[in-house]
Design goal:
globular; about 300 residues; mainly alpha; two-stranded antiparallel ribbon; single chain; about 55% helix
Length: about 300
């Protein structure tokens, strides 16, 4: 009996010892900034080369600069955009058209990435990711300009950087290399859904940007309608599809509500500006040649709202 008890006690001690070794090993492997940034961004095709002098600079979260974060992301994505594909050259031209309408001193750039659903995502410091499928889902350049403007709105209104800084401070992250902070910031935003207020602010920013520029403001509602048509044809993306990048399908309010609201806003704007001419660019999107490089006379439209 005593022998059996001793054997049982020994087995328990061995099991506890093994469990402790596993826990200690996991604790040693985990860092304060553990994230899924690498695997998630490999899915969307971005090479991660953050081990440069800028990315290795150590600084506390309280001194984190949004432009510095953007510089790290640009250093990471620029290699895949060189030499630029047709899609990348198209996005570069389109962003150049929108850049003068922005307020923050960032060198904005949108990068095309491979991912099997139409989507876009903003990162701090003036970086926007656009999936290749988005370019084939939208129906016009004005719709694409609206989507880009929406993501720029998240940057201009501080949604990206404020979300990241709050999360880093909440986790009591201390001084870390800038590259590690950029990794963690991206991981936060990959899993993050903006509030209803923030989404509406970004929608309103996109509408204002289009009205201040050369594109048809109906592109905002049109973009939502195109994404809604995709959703109706393909169904909502599965959790496996949607997880690596924040998307319009899980945002709120629903696409139908947003399309209706900004369709009405566009109609009201056209009634107030009956003499205006604005650019749609359906053929520009099909050819992947933006308005700044190729202006088509029949893509300009005027007032046709009763």
């Amino acid at each position: 009996m005593n022998t059996g008890l001793r054997a049982g006690a020994l087995a328990v001690l061995v099991a506890c010892g093994v469990a402790l070794i596993v826990v200690l090993h996991q604790a040693r492997e985990q860092t304060p900034l553990e994230s899924t940034f690498t695997s998630a961004f490999q899915i969307v095709g971005a090479p991660l080369k953050l081990a440069d002098r800028v990315a290795s600079r150590v600084l506390p979260v309280s001194e984190l600069d949004e432009k510095a974060l953007g510089d790290v992301y640009r250093a990471s994505y620029d290699p895949q955009a060189t030499p630029a594909s047709r899609e990348q050259r198209y996005l570069d031209s389109l962003v150049a058209e929108l850049q003068p309408l922005t307020g923050k001193p960032f060198p904005y750039r949108a990068y095309v990435v491979d991912y099997p659903v139409p989507n876009a995502m903003a990162l701090p410091g003036g970086v926007v990711l656009v999936t290749r499928d988005l370019l084939t889902t939208l129906r016009s350049e004005s719709e694409l300009a609206a989507v880009l403007a929406h993501e720029i709105g998240h940057i201009e209104r501080g949604h990206c950087f404020d979300t990241v800084r709050f999360e880093l401070l909440a986790r009591k992250v201390g001084a870390e290399p800038l590259g590690a902070l950029a990794d963690f910031a991206a991981a936060i935003l990959l899993r993050h859904s903006y509030s209803k207020t923030m989404e509406h602010e970004a929608d309103a920013y996109a509408f204002e940007m289009l009205t201040n520029g050369r594109y048809d403001p109906r592109g905002v509602a049109g973009g939502f309608e195109s994404l809604l048509s995709y959703e109706q044809a393909h169904g909502e993306p599965s959790p496996q599809q949607a997880s690596p990048i924040r998307d319009y399908f899980t945002s709120h309010p629903p696409l139908e509500v947003r399309a209706e609201e900004f369709g009405q806003r566009a109609d009201a704007w056209w009634r107030r500006h009956p003499g205006e001419r604005r650019y749609v660019g359906a053929r520009n999107l099909q050819a992947l040649v933006a308005l700044p490089r190729h202006e088509l006379a029949d893509e300009w439209v005027g007032h046709d709202v009763p």
